Amino acid sequence: MGEELGYRYDVEVVGLLASPAHRWDGRPDAALADGAVDRRDRLEVRAGHGIVGDRYAGRLAHRDAAVTVIAIEALEALAGELGSGPLDPLATRRNVVLRGAEVEALRGQPFSLDGVLLAGGRPANPCAWLDLALAPGAHRGLRGRAGIRCAARGDGVLVLGPAVLRSAVPLDRARAGVAVRPINRTARDR
Q1: CB 13 within 8 A of CB 98
Q2: Is 99 helix (H, G, I), strand (E, B) or coil?
Q3: 12 with 164: CB under 8 angstroms?
Q4: What pTM did the predictor assign?
């Protein structure tokens, strides 16, 4: 896969999260939404397993979605739209928060972050809890830009700070916070 990743980008890892327990279950509840965020300085990633110490690591049902990635620019754009002031990116419960990468363009694409091979998968759709954990309107406002779910295809360690992202497709930093909308299909196209 390494030769296929011909595009190189200098990015910054601005947030890391690994949670040993599921924090949000059922209907949104303000008391639970205010709970501690499981911030980390480093994450150990294992191929076919996920993030060591995370609730989804090693779980068969989550093998293709064991690592979630979001662009901080999406949250900065949302904060501007909502007039809310700065938003805590780890309150989204995404494992990796990047600056300088068009994360949504990595859907369905292989990429690496500081040598850790990942397979970008489906969108990490926002949930209603975000209206409590981030700001009212966050659930709707993050649609199409809440990050992606990835499968761990290689071993390695991710740390906060400067990093190198390699991708199989070209990325546009200017689009890092832009929502990707699904194609509207007619009944005839389905």
Answers
A1: yes
A2: strand
A3: no
A4: 0.87
**CA distances in angstroms from 90 to 7, 29, 49, 87, 151, listed in the order given:** 27, 18, 22, 9, 20
pLDDT tens for 44-80 read 999 999 999 998 888 877 788 899 999 999 999 999 9
Name the pairing type of β-strands 156-159 and 148-152: unpaired
How far is residue 181's CA from residue 178's CA, in Å, rounded to a whole number?
A: 9
The answer, yes or no, to whether residue 148 has pLDDT greater than 80, is yes
C-alpha to C-alpha distance for 148 and 131, rounded to whole angstroms:
19
- CATH code of domain 2-166: 2.40.33.20
Query: Do the beta carbons of residue 115 and residue 156 sit within 8 Å?
Result: yes
- What is the spatial distance between Cα 5 and Cα 110, in angstroms, rounded to a whole number? 8
From residue 175, give the alpha-carbon distance in Å to each of 17, 62, 109, 170, 179.
24, 28, 17, 12, 8
Q: State the amino acid at position 186 in one-letter form.
A: T
The widest CA-to-CA distance across the chain, in whole angstroms, is 50
